[in-house]
Amino acid sequence: MFKRFLLLLTIILLSVASACEKNTQRDFPFISFDEYIYLNNPSNIELQNPGGAVITSGGYRGLIIFRRFINNDVRDFAAYDRACPTHYEEDCSLLELSEDRVFAECPCHGEKYLLFDGSPGEDAVISMVEYQCTFDGSLIRARN
Fold first, then answer.
1. Reading across the β-sheet that carries 139-143, which strands appear in turn?
2. Sign (positive/negative) of CA torsion 29, 103, 107, 57?
3. Which residues make Cβ contacts (< 8 Å) with residue 40, sequence separation at least 6?
4. Which portions of the chain are predicted below pLDDT 50?
5. CATH tag, 38-143
6. Which residue, 41, 48, 79, 118, is most buried by CB atoms nearer than 10 A?
7. How much is the pLDDT for 27?
8. Residue 3 pLDDT
9. Cα(52)–Cα(55) distance, rounded to whole angstroms?
10. In degrees rounded to 5, what are phi and psi of residue 94?
């Protein structure tokens, strides 16, 4: 009886584990770029405070630069590709910033992504494509 219970429990746990497995494989184009964003540029004024975001060139379909903190270190900023990670090939899949600057939204299918860490939000299943980002106190460098 105990062996049957153990076998049943093992099967259930394996089923749950395989169902919860994340799809970490990503078929997203690799683009080499090196973009510089100056904080003293008037077009980047939103990046002076946490929660600020701007759209720039670079990446596959442009970049979303987001300010997380105001600690003056490398974790202050995030650089995400503006292409929706789910269906980046579609012309309409250019992510837009929500009015409150909390989410990036896909106008095609309505997916939302949290700008703070790029994680999937409403109707999304995978995270935004994030690029390496450094900060020296006045200059943000995003690259791949």
1. 34-38, 139-143, 130-135, 77-81, 63-67, 53-56
2. negative
3. 138
4. 5-25
5. 2.102.10.10
6. 79
7. 82
8. 52
9. 11
10. -85, 110
Residues 55-86: b if buried by 16+ CB within 10 A, e if exposed: ebebbbbbbbbbbeeeeeeeebbbbbbbbbbb
Q: What are the structure tokens assigned to 75, written together?
A: 């974790």
Distance of CA 65 to the CA centre of its chain: 10
At residue 68, the pLDDT reads 93
Q: Tell which residue, 138, 144, 118, has the closest CA to residue 47.
A: 138
**Spatial distance between the Cα atoms of 86 and 3, rounded to a whole number of angstroms:** 44
DSSP for 65-134, written as a single string: EEE---SSSGGGEEEEESB-SSSTTSTT-B-EE-TTSSEEE-TTT--EEETTT--B-TT--SPPPEEEEE
Q: Which are the contacts of 43, defined by CB distance < 8 A and separation ≥ 6?
A: 54
What pLDDT does 71 receive? Answer: 87
- Please report, as a single letter, which amino acid is at residue 77: F
**Both structure tokens of 130:** 């994030």
Q: What's the gap between Cα 104 and its chain centre?
A: 9
